[in-house]
Each structure stands twice: as structure tokens, then as C-alpha cells.
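Exercise 7. Given the encoded structure of a 436-residue chain, write a plausible sequence.
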């Protein structure tokens, strides 16, 4: 593989990158490109599951020798059919550590550092050390957080003649891979220069939800019985125990309750794995789809670092249900995207002065913001003021009376509210026009 790669990088090519809108240079063939790839390029793989295992293998075999991997999960026996870096003896171990060990055993000159934690546990400085980040996550909120972080890390000049200019040295490209059964996508996001993950949230289908009346009174399919055990029976019988979706004991309890309910209604098909799928919103994974998408992501990584080919512009879709079909399309940037729009933009919002703080906070959970657990400060003619904070707990309790107050009591017309909330990084300014 390395000899083939060396030929690609050492010979002229009509397919090499040309200087364009992205912060990349023209392809200039040289043996130094492979040396730079192996010695100076530092890549972070986010996730060591089905897609992450394929990514680690492809990157290591493609000349990337400095790799970090981050994943908080442990290996379950159900992972073994597609996460090929793991063996039965590894069940219960950290995915990140086990995957790193496997890669370094098979490819000794590849150094893989592992991190067993949530991506949100790492500080901004941790992410600054990488030339490229590849995401193999199946969690939308985690992908939103990572996208938001990398965009906020880009330095944009705010004053003088260079106002609005971007420092290219602060740009860390994000390659986002995702799979869902026989479907998948690979996407290149260059912070502040292309559309971002947040711009395309509307393209994701809403999560499946079942009406409570149906699951409680007229269950018809296995999923209804599982949802009943998960949403209703757990709170009735184990309300003092917080449900841990990663606990085999908790999943077994829900499975047994769901199976009992299904039997009473003559419904077939409740299994332990289906139970995990409903509770954890797991989409069945297909190993071949992971392989295709990981290969596409790795190819984009190679092109971003060496310029040996035109970068994907900017999203590739794979459909393998009725054959093998791929196509590419461009997501347009949303002008008022809460993450990647112009940093000088302050969003305007008209609200009745009688709107309660609780109602305003609930509106932030809807498009375009889609924020959870917001904290709010204000700035205006009367100076700066803290309206509500989620943490620390003492401050949250002290400010709790504000939740029932009307905005007209808390702020002045024209004040700017600075909102922070999960899963976005940074404060979002919203100028409020109060209507009497």
C-alpha cells in the first residue's frame, strides 16, 4: 500500500488539487509528501465502533502514523459481528484502548493514542493539536457539538482593514462519516468556509416516536411493547433507579417486561437486541456499509493532507439497498446558521413582553437553535445581568424564580440576550424586540 501511495504522491497527476476556495495548495508531487503524511500529520478519530474500527484500519494502512482515537464505550458481545478489531476476550474492555492496541500490534510503526471519555470532556487545547478530525459518531448531538467546537476555534479578525479575514492556521477540517443500515454518507466540512453540520440538520429524519395512547392501550408491534416497558413500567416499578441504557441488567429487565406484555397481546418478535435498538435508538449496522464510508473518509483525509486529488464537494451519499449507488451534492450554507454564520450577526427576535422566561427557553429548543438546557445573560442600557444559569446548582436555585417572570420584568426593549446551551459551543447573541 505504501509503495503504491508513494507512486501516487511522487508523480504528476491531472487529478491533483488546484488552488480554489478551500485553504489548500496545488498538488506538487514529491516524496516529501509521504514523509509529511507519516511523520507530521496528526489525525483524531472520534468513535471506535463499527465505523471507527474501519477508519483506524484504513488510516493506518494509508500512511497515517500518528493517530488518536477517543471513545467512552466498552465492548459488548453484540459488537463482535462488525467491529472487527475486537475479539470475545475483549468484551467489557474499552473500545478505544482495545482498538489502539490491535492497530499497533498489526502495524508496529503506527502510534495510536487512546482516550476513554466523552468528547465534551476534552478542552479546546486538546483538539488544536490535530491537523484533521474524522468523526465516526452515531449521535447527532455529539456531532453537533464537535462541529460547533471546530467552527468556534477558527480565528476571525474583527477589527481594522482585515475585519472578517480568517486565519487559515486555525482551521481544522472535519470529515463526518455516518451509516444507517445499507445507507451512508461521507462529508467534508471546512470550518467557516463550507456549510457546517448544523446547516443540514433539517435533512435528518425525526426520531421515531410512539403515541402514549397506542403503547398503553392498543400495542400492535414489538416496538410498542418495548416502549411501554421503557417509558411507563420502569417509572412505575423502578422510579428510584436512574435508567442506564448501557447497563445489561437494566436492558434485561426492560426486555423481560416487554416480552411478558407482548405475550399477553399475542405479539411476536420481542428480542433482547430489538429492545436495545428501541431504547438506545440503534439503527442496525451493516459491516459493508461501514467499510465503504470509512474508505471514502480516508480518501478525503489523504486528499486534504497531500492535495493529490480534488476534495469532495462536499457530501457523498451511498445507497446499497437495491444495488450500489453513490451521488454527491452540495449543502448550501444557511445565512443565519446559529453555528457558522457571520460572527458579526446578532439575531433579532420579536416577543411579547408578557412572554415568560420559561416560554422563551422552550422556544430555543425549536429550529433554528435546537438548544437544550440554555443559560442566559443580558446586556443593554442597564448593563449586564445574569438571567438564568443551569450551573452551578446554587445559582440555578437562586435564579429559579425568574422562570415564571415575564421578559418585560427581566429585560428592556432592545437588550441582547447571550444564550449558551447544549450541544452548541459558545454564546449566541439574540437582540430582543419587546411588543406590548
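Solution.
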Amino acid at each position: 500500500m505504501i509503495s503504491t501511495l508513494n507512486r501516487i504522491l511522487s508523480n504528476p497527476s491531472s487529478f491533483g488539487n488546484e488552488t480554489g476556495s478551500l485553504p489548500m495548495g496545488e498538488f506538487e508531487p514529491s516524496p516529501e509528501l509521504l514523509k509529511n503524511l507519516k511523520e507530521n500529520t496528526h489525525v483524531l478519530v472520534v468513535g471506535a465502533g463499527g465505523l471507527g474500527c474501519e477508519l483506524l484500519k484504513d488510516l493506518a494502512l494509508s500512511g497515517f502514523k500518528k493517530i488518536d482515537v477517543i471513545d467512552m464505550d466498552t465492548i459488548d458481545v453484540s459488537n463482535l459481528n462488525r467491529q472487527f478489531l475486537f475479539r470475545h476476550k475483549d468484551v467489557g474492555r474499552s473500545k478505544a484502548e482495545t482498538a489502539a492496541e490491535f492497530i499497533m500490534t498489526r502495524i508496529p510503526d503506527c502510534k495510536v493514542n487512546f482516550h476513554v471519555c466523552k468528547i465534551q470532556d476534552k478542552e479546546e487545547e486538546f483538539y488544536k493539536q490535530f491537523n484533521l478530525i474524522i468523526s465516526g459518531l452515531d449521535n447527532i448531538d455529539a456531532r453537533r457539538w464537535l462541529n460547533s467546537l471546530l467552527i468556534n476555534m477558527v480565528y476571525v479578525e474583527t477589527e481594522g482593514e482585515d475585519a472578517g479575514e480568517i486565519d487559515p492556521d486555525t482551521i481544522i477540517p472535519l470529515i463526518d462519516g455516518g451509516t444507517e443500515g445499507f445507507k451512508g454518507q461521507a462529508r467534508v466540512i471546512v470550518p467557516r468556509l463550507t456549510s457546517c453540520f448544523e446547516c443540514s440538520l433539517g435533512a435528518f429524519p425525526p426520531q421515531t416516536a410512539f403515541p402514549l395512547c397506542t403503547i398503553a392501550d392498543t400495542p400492535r408491534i414489538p416496538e410498542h411493547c418495548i416502549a411501554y416497558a421503557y417509558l411507563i413500567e420502569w417509572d412505575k416499578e423502578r422510579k428510584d433507579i436512574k435508567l442506564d441504557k448501557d447497563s445489561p441488567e437494566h436492558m434485561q429487565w426492560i426486555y423481560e417486561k416487554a416480552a411478558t406484555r407482548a405475550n399477553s397481546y399475542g405479539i411476536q418478535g420481542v428480542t433482547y437486541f430489538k429492545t436495545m435498538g428501541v431504547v438506545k435508538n440503534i439503527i442496525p449496522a451493516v459491516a459493508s456499509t461501514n467499510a465503504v464510508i470509512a474508505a471514502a473518509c480516508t480518501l478525503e483525509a489523504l486528499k486534504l493532507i497531500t492535495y493529490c486529488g480534488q476534495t469532495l464537494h462536499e457530501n457523498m451519499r451511498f445507497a446499497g439497498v437495491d444495488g450500489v449507488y453513490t451521488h454527491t451534492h452540495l449543502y448550501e450554507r444557511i445565512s443565519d446558521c446559529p453555528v457558522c454564520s457571520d460572527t458579526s450577526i446578532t439575531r433579532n427576535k420579536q416577543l411579547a413582553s408578557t412572554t415568560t422566561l420559561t416560554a422563551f427557553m422552550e422556544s430555543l429548543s425549536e429550529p433554528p437553535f435546537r438548544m437544550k438546557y440554555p443559560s442566559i445573560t443580558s446586556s443593554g442600557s442597564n448593563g449586564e445581568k445574569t438571567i438564568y444559569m443551569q450551573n452551578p446548582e446554587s445559582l440555578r436555585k437562586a435564579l429559579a424564580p425568574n422562570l415564571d417572570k415575564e421578559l418585560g420584568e427581566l429585560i428592556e426593549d432592545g437588550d441582547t440576550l447571550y444564550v449558551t446551551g447544549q450541544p452548541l459551543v459558545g454564546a449566541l447573541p439574540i437582540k430582543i424586540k419587546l411588543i406590548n
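Remark. The chain has a mean pLDDT of 90. Students should compare their own answers with the one above.
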